[in-house]
Amino acid sequence: MPLNRRDFLNRSAATGAGLALAGTAGAVAGAAPAQATGRHGNGHGHGHAPKKYSFSVLGTTDLHGNVFNWDYFTDAEYDDKAHNDVGLAKISTLVTQQRAAKGRGNTLLIDAGDTIQGTQLSYYYAKIDPITAKHGPVHPMAQAMNAIGYDAAALGNHEFNYGIPVLRKFEEQCDFPLLGANALDARTGRPAFPPYSFHRLSVKGAPDVKVAVLGLTNPGIAIWDKANVQGKMTFPGLEEQAAKYVPRLRAMGADVVVVSAHSGSSGTSSYGDQLPYVENAAALVAEQVPGIDAILVGHAHSEIPEYVVANKQTGQGVVLSEPLKWGQRLTVFDFGLELVRGKWEVVTVGASVLNSNTVEEDPRIVRLLADEHKEVVGYVNQVIGTSAAAMSAEEAPYKDTPIIDFINFVQAETVKTALAGTEYASLPVLSQAACFSRTAAIPAGQVTIRDVAGLYVFENTLEARVLTGAQIKAYIEFSANYFVQTAPDAPVDVAKLTNANGTPDYNYDVVGGVTYDIDISRPAGSRVSNVLFQGAPIDESARFVLAVNNYRANGGGNFPGVATAQQVWANSEEIRNTIITWVQANGAIDPARFGSQDWKLTRGGVAVF
To answer: Which family does this protein fall into (predicted)?
Structure first.
C-alpha cells in the first residue's frame, strides 16, 4: 500500500513515530558532471495542465554477473529450495512488462551495485578474455544492461575486486552512469565517479518531472579491496555524503530524490571499529538526511519489499526496498505526484518486489549473449585432473570434511613455498578456510575447472600473517560463535545448529594445522578447548604464520588479531586459481594426503557426531 506523505506527516507528528514505522518481511577523477536523460511521459490527466502524475522507478541490486538463469558451477539451470530464478534475461522480461503497463516514458531503471563479480561468466571477461585487452570484448553485463536500458547504477564494493582498470573499462562500456558520491579521488578529495544522475520525465501540458538519482557505495571497500584502492580512492560515510548532495539536488530543482545505496539497512558493520563509517547505513541515511523520497537498498542480499523510515528532522516517511540478489527480484517504486503552485510534489510512494521466476527469459538477451555463454561453459568444463574419491561440502559447516581440508592444504603449501628462504621459513604455517557453498563437490574420477572453482566462489586472494598461539586460540573461539548454543540433552537439528545471530557460512573459519574441540553447550566465547599443535597444547607465545584470504586479513568478519597482524607475504592471484593451478600441476587429488579429523563439536566432552 503506497505511503501517503501527508497522512504520514500528520500521523508521525501526532505519535512521535520513530525509526521504523512500517515494514514487510520478507569519469576521470574530479567534479563529475550530472547525467541527464529526457523522457516523454503522459500526464495521466485531462486538459492542458494535469494536476496529477504517476511514474515508477524499477530497481535491481547485487546482480553478481548473472545474465542467464544458469549455474556455471553445476553446469545446469539455476535452482534453489525456493525455486528462485536468476539473471538479467529474466529481469528484462519483468522490466518490459512494467514499461508496457505504465508507459516507457514513465519509468526509470536503476541498480544498486555489485555487478561485475560473482559468476564464471563475469570472471572470464575480467581474467581469461579480459575487457581491458586491446580490442577486447564488451563485458556481458554491460551488453545486457545497455540492451535492457538502465538509466543509472550505483557502484558496489565487488566492482573493485578486479582492480580499477577493469572497473574503468566497464564504466566506459556502459551507456549509463556508474554513480558513487562517496567514492573520492584520494589525491584531490573530489568525486572519482559521477555522484548523481538527473532525469527529466516529460508531462504533456505541464512542467517536466525532474528526478535525481544519488549513488552511494560501501565504505568497506577501503578494507576489503585495500590492495586495489589504497592511495587511489577514499570512501567516506554514506550519511555525510548524502547530507552534502541531497540539498544540492533539491536546489538544482529535483522534484524527486531517489538514493541507490550499496549498503544494507540494518545499521551494522562487519568490520567492527576499523572504520568510523557504518557498513549497512541505508536506514540511517533515511533517518538523518532530509529530502529523500526513496532508497533502493543493496549489499545485504536480503529481500525487503517495503520498509518505511521516518526522517528525524522532518518526520517525512522514506520508503526503502531491497530486491533479492542475482536478479531474483525486481523492486518497483510507485510515485504519485501533484502539481502544487506550478511545482510537482510527491504525495504517495509505495514499493513492492516482483519475482523473476514468474516469467520466461527475454529471448533478445539470450540471443545477444549466446556466444559468450557458450564460450564460458566450454571453459569451465575443461578437465584438469582426477580425484581418488568424491568429496562434498554438504556437512562442512558442522563436521570436519576433506573438502575444506583440501583448501587449507593447498593454501598452506602455497605459503610455505613462498616463504622458503626468507626469515619466516622456520615458522609453522596454519591456514583458514570456510564453507562458501554447501553444494560444492569434487567428484571421484575426472575433475573440471568448474568443480574446483565451485569450492571458492569469491575472488579472494591469499596472504600470510604472523599471529601468536594466543591469537590463534582467540581466532578459533571467535569463529565458534557461529554455532547455536545447544544443551547437552537437547536434540541436535543440523538445520538449526549453525548461523547463530545471522552469521553466514563464509564467516565460520576452520583453522587447519591445529586440532581443537568446540563445546556447543557452552555460551559463545568459552567454547573452544584442547587446542593442540603437533599433539601438544599450543604455545600461546609461539609465532605462527596464518595463510588467510584478503577479505579476512583486511577485517572482513571482524575476526580478532588478524587485521593488525604483520603481513609477511601476499599475492594478487585468486585463491580459486591457486587451487586450479595446483590440480593442473599435480594431476591427482588424493584425500589421503590431506584429509584428517582436526576439529569436532562436543557437548560436555562427548562428540556430537
So the answer is: Belongs to the 5'-nucleotidase family.
Does 421 lie in the same domain as 358? no
Map grid coordinates 519483468 to a residue. 94
| Contact (CB, 8 A) for 416 and 544 | no
Cell numbers that stand for 312 in this block: 528525524
> Is the predicted pLDDT of residue 109 greater than 80, yes or no?
yes
AA letter at 129: D
378, three cell numbers: 566450454
Contact predicate 89/140, CB 8 Å: no
Neighbouring CB atoms inside 10 A of 351's CB total: 27
pLDDT reported for residue 31: 37
Three-state DSSP at 248 gives helix
Is the Cβ–Cβ distance between 3 and 308 less than 8 Å? yes
Among the residue ranges 214-228, 334-348, 400-414, the one predicted with the least confidence is 214-228
Task: Give pLDDT tens digits for 503-538.
Answer: 999 999 999 999 999 999 999 999 999 999 999 999
Question: What CATH number did the domain enclosing 525 receive?
Answer: 3.90.780.10
> Do 368 and 305 have their domain in common?
yes
What is the per-residue pLDDT across 135-173, written as a single tens digit (0 to 9) for each? 999 999 999 999 999 999 999 999 999 999 999 999 999
pTM of the model: 0.83
Shared-domain flag, residues 312 and 293: yes
All 3 cell numbers of residue 364?
Answer: 533478445
Note the pLDDT tens digit of each residue in 217-233: 999 999 888 889 999 99
Q: Please report whether residue 334 resides in a domain.
A: no
The secondary structure of 508-531, three-state, reads CEEEECCEEEEECCCCCCCCEEEE
State how far the Cα of 493 lies from the Cα of 496, in Å rounded to an integer.
5
Cα(540)–Cα(334) distance, integer angstroms? 59
Neighbours of 52 (CB within 10 A): 15
What is the residue range of 15's domain?
A: 3-328+339-376
The angle subtended at Cα 260 by Cα 255 and Cα 263, nearest 5°, is 140
- The whole-number pLDDT of residue 6 equals 65
Query: Does any domain span residue 333?
Result: no
> Of 517, 570, 527, which Cα lies nearest the Cα of 545?
570
139 and 196 in a common domain: yes
